[in-house]
Specification:
BirA Bifunctional Protein, domain 2; aa-tRNA-synth_II; protein biosynthesis; binds phenylalanine; cytoplasm; three-stranded antiparallel beta sheet; about 40% helix; alpha+beta; ATP-binding
């Protein structure tokens, strides 16, 4: 019997007794997996080979599991932290163990409950004592995480059940199923092999030489299998969030808005003081802002002196005849401190001030879609940097209805019709509203933005006479509502889910 080369190779590599995975044959023959699968199907059609499929289960680490395989389990970190504080001698305050352990946010609770469960020591009314005999290296959960980080193809059925259960419940491991295609020689196949199978010379392509020599009449052409699996080719494409941002721009431009741009690093004067944020406001000294070390301050000559005077007066005494300021000190040096902007409202301030200087008449509408930076704890809905959809409208006699109407119109463009408003407080707006939208998958209300009508204490120093309503909306949250994405870290950051990004069709 004469067969194409790949088919002969597959027949030779297959066995009549043990089903052989297609991948293994590809490895042994040096052929592509797709080519082997194609050949196998052709041999199946000729009755020489049987192709079967089975589901293979493999135990793998989740992202969190990978993190703990690398850093150690949180309860181990707690144990080490407590031990370094002397908790093997006598109980120490929990805080003194958690700090050195480097635990943050929900990891603290995870550490505490597992520490107790594994009897690694005692936790009692805010203190911790450790059992010095406990050996993290012999903790079976740790051993399994380590093994999974080193070994592929671990069969869940052959792994200690309790341990797998415990780690599955903690969301650190999961069972991944895949389809394995296997081939076995049929009786006919065995007979054919015994009688002898030869490689038929086949030609894959017609060449000018074949045509001119007339040889084409005698050769056998390779058959194409148009049903064979082909390798998936992922072309480049714009990032889903970028597409979303472009779409938001289109919508806002369609609503009559112009785009504004400005510095990522700015003086607190523009980020906070011009927004009537008191200098002793906790957020201004708090660890959640990224301050610049070098240079630490904006040069004095870069702040307009008149504006500085007017902002200082508003802070001290308020505006208008009955104004109430903060009656607390205001320090220009403090206002010159440089930081990564925690919101893009510094851009609104700069544009309002610039426009007022040129005596521009209302109505005016501006927006930006730019990064803002906050030292938040990373989780499914928070990143250290995010895109804020900043916007404002300057007009005579604006009311809350105008604000709500604008949001309703805007979100409708993305199919989001169920928006809720919650009264809020911002030093620079009155009234102020937080916006919430319902997540299509989890049905939970998530915060999507913050808004309000700028106060006279903010507008007067900038020289703006009309009303201004304004907002900051999170692009990522809009993305989550519009696409159903549940974890923002799948979309951007360092742990993105490439499959999600490749396959997500961003259609709004
Ligand atoms: N700066 C606000 C958003 C906002 C902008 C303008 C007016 C009101 C609110 C924030 O980051 O949350």
């Amino acid at each position: 019997m004469k067969l194409p080369e790949t088919q002969v190779a597959v027949l030779e590599a297959a066995s009549a007794d043990d089903p052989t995975p297609v991948e293994q044959i590809a490895e042994e023959t040096g052929e592509q997996v797709q080519a082997v699968a194609g050949a196998a199907f052709e041999l199946e059609e000729k009755g020489l080979l049987a192709v079967t499929e089975r589901i293979d289960a493999e135990l793998v680490l989740t992202q969190e599991g990978e993190q703990y395989a690398f850093e150690g389990l949180p309860e181990h970190s707690l144990w080490v932290g407590a031990l370094s504080g002397g908790a093997d001698e006598e109980p120490i305050e929990l805080g003194k163990a958690i700090g050195p352990a480097g635990l943050q946010g929900e990891q603290v609770d995870i550490a505490l409950s597992n520490f107790a469960r594994k009897g690694m020591g005692d936790i009692d009314s805010g203190t911790v004592a450790v059992d010095p005999e406990f050996d993290p290296d012999s903790d079976p959960e740790h051993a399994l995480l380590e093994r999974l980080s080193e070994e592929e193809g671990v069969d869940p059925a052959e792994t200690d059940d309790d341990r797998v259960d415990a780690l599955e419940r903690r969301g650190l491991v999961e069972v991944e199923e895949s389809t394995v295609r296997e081939v076995t020689l049929t009786d006919e196949g065995v007979t054919a092999m015994m009688e002898g199978v030869e490689v038929a010379e086949t030609v894959g392509q017609v060449t000018p030489e074949l045509l001119t020599s007339g040889e084409w009449e005698d050769v056998e052409f390779a058959e194409y299998n148009v049903q064979a699996d082909a390798e998936t080719v992922h072309g480049g494409k714009p990032h889903a969030l970028r597409e979303m941002s472009e779409r938001v721009k289109d919508v806002l431009v369609g609503m009559g808005f112009e785009e504004m741009q400005g510095p990522h690093v700015d003086a607190d004067f523009y980020i906070n003081d011009c927004l009537f944020m008191p200098q002793d406001h906790p957020a201004r000294n708090h660890w959640d802002r990224f301050a610049l070390e070098e240079p630490a301050q904006m040069d004095r000559e870069n702040l307009p002196p008149d504006l500085v005077d007017r902002v200082e007066a508003a802070h001290r005494d308020g505006v208008g005849p009955d104004g109430e300021g903060y009656h607390s000190p205001w320090d220009e040096d403090f206002a010159r401190a440089l930081a990564l902007r925690g919101h893009t409202t510094n851009l609104s301030v700069r544009h309002l001030a610039g426009l007022a200087e040129g005596d521009i008449d209302p109505p005016q509408r501006y927006f930006s879609i730019e990064k803002a930076y906050r030292n938040d704890t990373l989780d499914a809905t928070h990143l250290l940097e995010f895109f804020q959809i900043e916007g404002w409208v300057m007009a005579e006699d604006l009311s809350v209805r105008d604000l709500m109407g604008t949001f309703t119109e805007f979100y409708e463009q993305f199919g989001i019709t169920d928006i809720q408003f919650k009264p809020h407080y911002n030093p620079y707006t009155e009234p102020s509203f937080e916006l919430f939208g319902r997540h299509p998958e989890t049905d939970e209300l998530i915060e999507i933005g913050n808004s309000g009508i700028f106060r006279p204490e903010m507008l007067e120093p900038l020289g703006v006479e009309a009303d201004v309503m304004a907002w900051g909306l999170a692009l990522e949250r809009l993305f989550m509502l519009a696409t159903g994405a549940e974890d923002i870290r799948d979309v951007h950051g360092t742990l993105v889910d490439l499959d999600f990004l490749r396959n997500e069709e961003v259609v709004y």
